Amino acid sequence: FPDSYAIVIDANEGWLAENPDRAKKFVQALQRGYQFAADNPDAAAQDLIDANPGAFNDEKLVFDSQRMLADQFMKDPNGRVGTQTVEQWSANSRFLYRSGLLNGPDGKPLTTEPDWSTYFTDDYLANP
Q1: What is the mean pLDDT of residues 92-120?
Q2: Taking a C-beta distance cutoff of 8 angstroms, is the pair 56, 38 a contact?
Q3: Which pTM value belongs to this model?
Q4: Distance between CA atoms of residues 69 and 91, nearest Å
Q5: How far apart are CA 39 and CA 1, in angstroms?
Q6: Backbone angles phi and psi of 106, in degrees to 5
Q7: Which domains does the chain possess?
Q8: pLDDT grade for 38, boundaries at 50, 70 and 90
């Protein structure tokens, strides 16, 4: 299986067209939180533990997990979180399409591969 995004924010295109500033503020606030977690994995792990007292049987696992995520998955090559590329997006999507796992509105498998570049945008992210 190709890598895929674990965190995706979906939005209604009509709402986005009517509320671009609200959407941008929300996405950028979320981006700041993830950037903090990627840049400060131990502090982020401790925040998660503090916000959920008693929820974790193995707190060391929370720290180890966040360090691994921050090191290997959360940042793009420039150290930013939230960015996507058509190559990354297409790898998993194309796998699902070629495996016959994507259906159209009629419930039948898609017969034409979608243009994956239309399925995401980085337009709402903060600029470095």
Answers
A1: 94
A2: no
A3: 0.84
A4: 20
A5: 28
A6: -80, 0
A7: 13-119 (3.40.190.10)
A8: very high
Q: What are phi and psi of 104, to 5 degrees?
A: -85, -175
Tokens encoding 21: 């500033």
Which pair of structure tokens corresponds to residue 59? 């707190």
| DSSP conformational letter for 119 | G
Q: Are 111 and 103 in contact (CB under 8 A)?
A: no
Structure tokens at 55: 């929820």
pLDDT in tens, 61-95: 999 999 999 999 999 999 999 998 999 889 999 99
Distance in angstroms between the alpha carbons of the first and the last residue of the chain:
31
Place of tokens 């609200």: 22
Token digits of residue 125? 């992210």
pLDDT above 90: residue 5:
no
Length of the chain: 128
